[in-house]
Amino acid sequence: MKAGKSNYDKFPATSIEDGMLITGWNNILKEVTPNVNYRAISIECYNGVYYEEVKLQFKKIPHVLFIDTTECFKPEEEILQLTKGFITEDVLFGYLGNLSIHDYFDDAGLNLARKKIAASREKGNIILFGPGSSLITHPDLLIYADMPRWEIQRRMRRKEVTGLGIDNREEPFSIQYKRGYFNDWNILDKHKKKLYGKVDYWLDTTKKEPKLIDKKTFFAGIEKTARKPFRVVPFFDPAPWGGQWMKDVCDLDGSVQNYGWCFDCVPEENSLLFDIGGILFEMPSVNLVYLKSREILGDPVESRFGDNFPIRFDLLDTMGGGNLSLQVHPTLQYARDSFGLPYTQDESYYLVDAEEDAVVYLGLKSGIDRHEMIADLEKANQNPGEIFDEKKYVNILPARKHDHFLIPAGTIHCSGKNSVVLEISATPNLFTFKLWDWNRLGLDGKPRPINLERGKEVIRWDRDTDYVSKELANQFQPVGQGDGWKEERTGLHRNEFIETRRHTFSKTIRHVTGNSVNVLTLLEGKEVIVESPDKAFEPFIVHYAEAFIVPAHVNEYLITPHGESGGKECITIKASVRF
Questions:
Q1: 312 - beta bridge partners?
Q2: 291 inside domain
Q3: Same domain, 459 and 495
Q4: By the 8 A CB rule, do 285 and 270 touch?
Q5: Which residue, 326, 321, 314, 317, is CA-closest to 353?
Q6: Gap between the Cα atoms of 304 and 155, Å rounded
């Protein structure tokens, strides 16, 4: 565990000079209220905003007509039927939908709203509020109330927000999340991408005090962030197997029972912060990826993945905790056929820290009877008190600090207790088939879903002891070395599209992005400084255990031990997309 006071930055931000930021509802409404009547004002809303609260505020603007777009939607029963094929009956998994916001509008309701607008336009202000509001009529002023997915999830758990066009607050969190992931967020993101150049103001209601920025400030933040290394805002979550390491290293609330996850680079769910005069404005970090996909990802990566950020970094903490579930991820064809995914969740475990008894479960023992193993799993999962003898079937490998285990899809795996793992993976983050969960209850006191029926369809039975030894465990290869530095390739497996390199250095080391986005974590050292050899961006400080992103078009950058780490050995792990 890291010694000394934590310097982990939980709120990394891009500083915006001369930006416009307004706080508080009174000031915001004063800014957006027209100086003259006869204007159409649209407030587009992402799912997860406190809808009624925000609507009540905008109703204070003088108006002759107020239209809530959800009242122009099809009835809830019709929307449930419309989305049934994508939401499915599965407790966790759906199928990526292809609907648009247009599919939600009822023709009769839409026509009636437009008639009311035509009759009211010369009488005073018209306010259109809600998702798809800018589609009903061309607005004179467009405001977007955005919301990061992590905050949406927190509100889902508290039963505070609804799905798109339906009130599903009382459903279990997993069902609400599933609807968001497979349907709602896809629809809203497709719509938002068409609005970026049209939005006049962006509204942040993630915290109690609302904040507003204008178009100029929004794009200034996007442009500046895209030209330099940056971090997204990490978020932390407890787990049934969670540990205690992150409390100290990441300076977290010690009264929380545990922290299992630190999601430090999941741009589709993380936030991005702009520091405007010392005040933080929060928005989904995926906005940056959507707007600057070529600059961030690199031309070859964008050509392959579109505006989908393909690399995920997160920490799994089991220090003083327990084993993760014994699990497997779907193979590519299964993911395509079953969930509509363009690619699957290949991954790896890099050991950031480990106690003497730490282990990783990886692959199957040679010569086992697959039918016997499945029968034993079925028996253990169906009968409370039964135990699955994992030692009989699964390789259990000692796990030491800086080991790296590769986990291509279809490989049975599990991180054991008393370790901290950096999980480097492809982006799909929902598709884990649990095979055995040690007779353990979830944090809600209920058994967690077991996915043996799906899991047994994708297990690669040829990933045995010999295969693991030769191809998955500690596949280190020297790449180069020089004065005060060395570089090693640590993976990933040839079946995976992510390439990882470990750099050990006590002096400045040069990196090139290689036409791909780079994602790095500092594994040893108090802090390092990232600089441009031609001063293209401001020096950027990174602290221990922090993940950061280097846009592909940065091309060349330098990393040097800094502060207390000056002249001392530091280690980073870097991931990029292999072509």
A1: 425
A2: no
A3: no
A4: yes
A5: 317
A6: 34
Split at pLDDT 50, 70, 90, the class of 1 is very low
Q: Which residues of 130-169 are buried (b: 16+ CB within 10 A; e: fewer)?
A: bbbbbbbbebebbbbbbbbbbbbbbbbeeeebbbbbbebe
Q: What is the DSSP letter of 132?
A: T
CATH number at residue 396: 2.60.120.10
Strand order through the sheet with 261-265: 235-237, 261-265, 311-317, 419-426, 347-354, 404-407
Q: How far apart, in whole angstroms, are the C-alpha atoms of residue 575 and residue 538?
A: 22
371 Cβ neighbours under 8 A, 6+ residues apart = none
What DSSP element (H or E) covers 423?
strand 419-426
Instruction: Give CA–CA dist 140/297, Å, rounded.
Output: 34
Contact of 360 with 422, CB cutoff 8 Å: no
**CATH code, domain carrying 148:** 3.40.50
Domain identity same for 29 and 166: yes
User: Taking a C-beta distance cutoff of 8 angstroms, is the pair 96, 339 a contact?
Assistant: yes
List C-alpha distances in Å: 9 to 50, 232, 252, 253, 505.
Answer: 28, 11, 11, 14, 23
Q: Is residue 556 part of a domain?
A: yes
If asked whether residues 180 and 120 sit together in one domain, one would say yes
Does residue 281 lie in a domain region?
Answer: no
Closest CA to 92 of 188, 171, 186: 171
Structure tokens at 320: 């003083």
Please enumerate in sequence order all residues whose Cβ is within 8 A of that of 16, keeping only pairs 6 or more positions apart, or say none: 217, 220, 221, 224, 274, 275, 276
Q: Which two tokens stand for residue 5?
A: 């006071």
Q: Is the domain of 407 the same as that of 420?
A: yes
The rounded distance, in Å, linking the Cα atoms of 552 and 560 is: 20
pLDDT digits (tens, 9 = 90+) for 509-559: 999 999 999 999 999 999 999 999 999 999 999 999 999 999 999 999 999
Q: What is the largest CA-CA distance in the chain?
A: 81
Count of C-beta atoms within a 10 Å radius of residue 454 = 19
Q: Could you identify the residue written with the tokens 């995926």?
A: 286
Q: What are phi and psi of 148, to 5 degrees?
A: -70, 150
The count of other CB atoms within 10 Å of the CB of residue 483 is 9
- The domain total for the chain is 3
Instruction: Name residue, tokens 């990802």.
Output: 297
Whether residue 214 is found in the same domain as residue 122: yes
Q: Which of the 8 DSSP states describes residue 75?
A: P
Domain that holds residue 570: 477-577
Helices (H) then strands (E): counts for the chain: 17, 31
Domain boundary (188, 204, 226) is at 226
Q: Is residue 406 part of a domain?
A: yes
CB 509 within 8 A of CB 521: no
* Domain end residue (candidates: 472, 497, 522): 472
Residues 520, 547 contacting (CB under 8 angstroms) = yes
Q: pLDDT tier at 214 (50, 70, 90 boundaries)? A: very high
> Cβ(458)–Cβ(334) under 8 Å?
yes
Question: pLDDT (tens digit, 9 = 90+) per residue, 310-332?
Answer: 999 999 999 999 999 999 999 99
Using DSSP's 3-state secondary structure scheme, residue 373 falls into helix
